[in-house]
Amino acid sequence: MTSDNYNTRQKQVYFKAFQELPQLENVLEQIKEKNASEFQMTILGKVIQFYSDKDMEIPENTSYIKAYWKDLLGKTVNFGQFYNPESGFIFIVGPLVSTFLQKINGRYLATLSSGPYGIFRGIGVTETEATTYLRLLDSGQYLLILRGFSDEIQKLDMILNSPVEC
C-alpha cells in the first residue's frame, strides 16, 4: 500500500484579532455566507470590553454574553468564562472551552498565569504568535481561532483579508 491511499490533508489553526465587536460580527457573517461550517471556531474576549462595546454597564453575571453568542452562533455553542491574573475576566465561546476550563489541581488551566500561553502553544502556534495574541487579548481585542484543513483556511484567509468592494 502506498501513502497515496491516505488522506494527507492537514489541519491547522488560524488566529485573527479584532479591535471592535462589529468587525468580528462582520467576519462571522462572511464565514456563514461561505458555508464554512467545517471550521471549529472559538472566540475569546474580555468581559469588560464586550460590555463597553455594547455600551452597557457590567452586570453581576455574564448571562447576557452567553445569550448573545448562542443567538449569533447557535444554541449548542459552548460558553465559559474565567479570570486570569494577566488578562482579567475573559469569556470563551466554542470548542476550546473545555480545554481552557480543564481543571488541574482544582484550578482551571486558563486561570494559571501561563495557562492561556500554554494552550495556544499546545494547539500549534509559535511562541511569538502566542505572546502576540495574548497581548492583543489583554489590550481588549477579540480573538477568533479557527481550526480546519490547511487549504480551506488559506481560502478563508484570502476572503477575510481581501479589500471590501463598494
How does this structure look, described?
This protein has a five-stranded antiparallel beta sheet with strand order 1-7-2-4-3. A two-stranded antiparallel ribbon has the order 5-6. With 166 residues, it is an alpha+beta fold. It has one domain (12-156). The chain has helices at residues 21-33, 47-53, 63-73, 97-100, 115-122, 127-138, 150-161, and strands at 11-18, 40-46, 79-84, 88-93, 103-104, 107-108, 142-149. It has seven helices and seven strands; from the N terminus they run βαβααββαββααβα. The termini are far apart. Strand 3 (79-84) and strand 4 form a beta hairpin.
Question: Key features?
Answer:
five-stranded antiparallel sheet, two-stranded antiparallel ribbon, 7 strands, globular, alpha+beta, 166 residues
- Ranges where pLDDT stays below 50 over 5 or more residues in a row are none
Gap between N and C termini, in Å?
53 Å
Which percent range describes the beta-strand content? Answer: 15-25%
Structural class of the helix and strand makeup?
Answer: alpha+beta
Count of separate structural domains: 1
Secondary structure layout:
Blueprint: E1 11-18, H1 21-33, E2 40-46, H2 47-53, H3 63-73, E3 79-84, E4 88-93, H4 97-100, E5 103-104, E6 107-108, H5 115-122, H6 127-138, E7 142-149, H7 150-161
Antiparallel strand pairs: 1-7, 2-4, 2-7, 3-4, 5-6
In short:
By secondary structure, the protein is α+β, with helices and mostly antiparallel strands.
